[in-house]
């Protein structure tokens, strides 16, 4: 059976929505739990397929897992590990699982981890990870699709990243926790998820300073210094940005709860410049609304604290019906405009020139059958379908399920007319999506 979203657009979203734990943080926290010879309990864990994959990777290494979905908590007992191999079958499904390499090198001084997979949004090499490990003293070879690492010991060193790679920063941080001496990562990634990982590790007994800046210092500690902890994951800023976009795109009014507004400063500023209304209600919630047609502006994706690439597709969806012409420059990934053909099929006027997208606002989008090509592009098509006139069907929901917990349920609570259905493979959605299913 094939799962599809059936969406009837044109209804303003109204109400309240609570944001879950950050996918891009919790996956790394779970990998970091491998450093402790004991149990770690992580709260605010979203129910996502990516979380399920990471837990399988960790379980494959010998850790014991207790995942309570009702409590949104995971307990990882890594008292003893029975393997240092993370299989291709799992790692190829999700790039973030590659971060177990740093944790295994740190604790076990050896690892065999498959080359990573994930969304096909462009080239994301692991050179920076490998050079960082080698600088710390590990011997690395790539063989039969696996990165094989060994180190008699790891020694702190100065590591400069050519670009502020989030994954490389995280992997090197994990490897350096138990290294002898101090490690300095220069041109480090500054994302909130990096800060969350550092806070998690420090709570565990590590000694890390400077997370959230371009220079991170990791003073190595002994294995016996690390201890069991309980920790709560930060809110997901990309999920928050998605619901902000959906409410604004449908000319609605809603409250986004359980967030850290400071993590969304750049995105919020852009929405205000387009003409949206945003009001901080308290330290963890804000009200967003929009009555009038938005105005087009330009966007350039940049590493944090710049405009996030994970919200680029949301910005594009808003620009499709805004006044004037807006230009989006994607400076991080060369293949992250995969939503463009589907948006144009809905009536958008988007011209792509390499890493630039020129969007001329039209009066409305029209519903049709759409395909989620990756996680964020898929979510942006859901938003486009909610704002469009008529009915839409969205296929390949497995991409969306990687990063959005109970997506259709939360949207329905806001008044969105969206349904998830299991259809037989023979069903042609072009022939069925005009039924009055909503």
Essential attributes:
alpha/beta, UDP-n-acetylglucosamine1-carboxyvinyl-transferase, Chain, 2 domains, four-stranded mixed sheet, 26% strand
Distance between the termini: 21 Å
CATH topology of the largest domain: UDP-n-acetylglucosamine1-carboxyvinyl-transferase, Chain
CA radius of gyration is 22 Å
Q: What would CATH call the class of the largest domain?
A: Alpha Beta
The CATH H-level homologous superfamily of the largest domain: Enolpyruvate transferase domain
Overall geometric form: globular
In words, what does this structure look like?
The protein has two domains: 2-20 and 235-432, UDP-n-acetylglucosamine1-carboxyvinyl-transferase, Chain (Alpha-beta prism); 23-232, Alpha-beta prism (UDP-n-acetylglucosamine1-carboxyvinyl-transferase, Chain). The protein has 15 helices and 24 strands. It is an alpha/beta fold and 438 residues long. The longest helix has 13 residues, at 192-204. The strands form six sheets. A four-stranded mixed β-sheet has the order 22-23-1-24, with helices on one face. A four-stranded mixed β-sheet has the order 2-15-17-16. Strands 4-5-3-14 form a four-stranded mixed β-sheet, covered by helices on one side.
Layout of helices and strands:
Blueprint: E1 2-8, E2 14-18, H1 23-32, E3 39-43, H2 49-60, E4 64-68, E5 73-77, E6 85-86, H3 88-91, H4 100-108, E7 110-114, H5 127-135, E8 139-143, E9 146-150, E10 158-160, H6 166-176, E11 182-186, H7 192-204, E12 207-209, E13 215-219, E14 229-232, H8 237-249, E15 253-257, H9 265-274, E16 277-282, E17 285-289, E18 299-300, H10 312-319, E19 325-329, H11 340-345, E20 349-353, E21 356-360, E22 369-371, H12 375-387, E23 391-395, H13 398-401, H14 407-413, E24 417-423, H15 429-432
Parallel strand pairs: 2-15, 3-14, 6-7, 10-11, 18-19, 22-23
Antiparallel strand pairs: 1-23, 1-24, 3-5, 4-5, 7-9, 8-9, 11-13, 12-13, 15-17, 16-17, 19-21, 20-21
């Amino acid at each position: 059976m094939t799962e599809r979203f059936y969406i009837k657009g044109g209804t303003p979203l109204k109400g309240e929505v609570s944001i879950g734990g950050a996918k891009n943080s919790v996956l790394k926290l779970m990998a970091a739990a491998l450093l402790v010879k004991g149990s770690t309990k992580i709260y605010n864990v979203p129910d996502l397929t990516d979380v399920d994959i990471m837990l399988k990777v960790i379980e494959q290494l010998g850790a014991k897992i207790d995942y309570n979905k009702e409590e949104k908590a995971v307990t990882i007992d890594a008292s003893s590990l029975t393997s240092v191999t993370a299989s291709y079958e799992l790692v190829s499904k999700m790039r973030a699982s590659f971060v177990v390499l740093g944790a295994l090198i740190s604790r076990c001084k050896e690892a065999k981890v498959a080359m990573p997979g994930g969304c096909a949004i462009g080239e994301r090499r692991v050179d920076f990870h490998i050079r960082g490990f080698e600088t710390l003293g590990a011997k690395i070879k790539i063989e039969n699709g696996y990165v094989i690492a060994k180190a008699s010991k790891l020694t702190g060193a100065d590591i400069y990243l050519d670009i502020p790679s989030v994954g490389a920063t995280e992997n090197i941080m994990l490897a350096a926790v138990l290294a002898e001496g101090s490690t300095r990562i220069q041109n480090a990634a500054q994302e909130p998820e990096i800060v969350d990982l550092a806070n998690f590790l420090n709570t565990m007994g590590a000694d890390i300073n400077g997370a959230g800046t371009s220079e991170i210092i990791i003073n190595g500690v002994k294995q016996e210094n690390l201890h069991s902890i309980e920790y709560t994951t930060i809110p997901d800023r990309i999920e928050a940005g998605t619901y902000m976009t959906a409410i604004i795109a449908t000319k609605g009014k809603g409250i986004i709860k359980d967030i850290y507004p400071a993590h969304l400063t750049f995105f919020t500023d852009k929405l205000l410049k387009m003409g949206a209304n945003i009001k901080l209600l308290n330290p963890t919630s804000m009200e967003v609304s929009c009555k009038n047609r938005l105005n087009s502006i330009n966007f350039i994706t940049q590493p944090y604290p710049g405009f996030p690439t994970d919200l680029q597709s949301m910005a594009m969806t808003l620009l499709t019906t805004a006044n004037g012409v807006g230009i989006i420059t994607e400076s991080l990934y060369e293949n992250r405009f995969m939503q463009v053909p589907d948006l144009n099929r809905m009536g958008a006027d988007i011209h792509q020139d390499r890493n630039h997208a020129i969007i001329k606002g039209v009066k409305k989008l029209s519903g049709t059958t759409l395909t989620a090509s990756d996680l964020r592009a898929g979510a942006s098509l859901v938003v486009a379908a909610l704002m469009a006139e008529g009915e839409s069907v969205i296929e390949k929901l497995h991409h969306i399920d990687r990063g959005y917990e109970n997506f259709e349920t939360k949207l329905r609570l806001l008044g969105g007319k969206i349904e998830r259905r299991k259809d037989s493979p023979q069903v042609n959605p072009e022939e069925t999506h005009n039924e009055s299913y909503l």
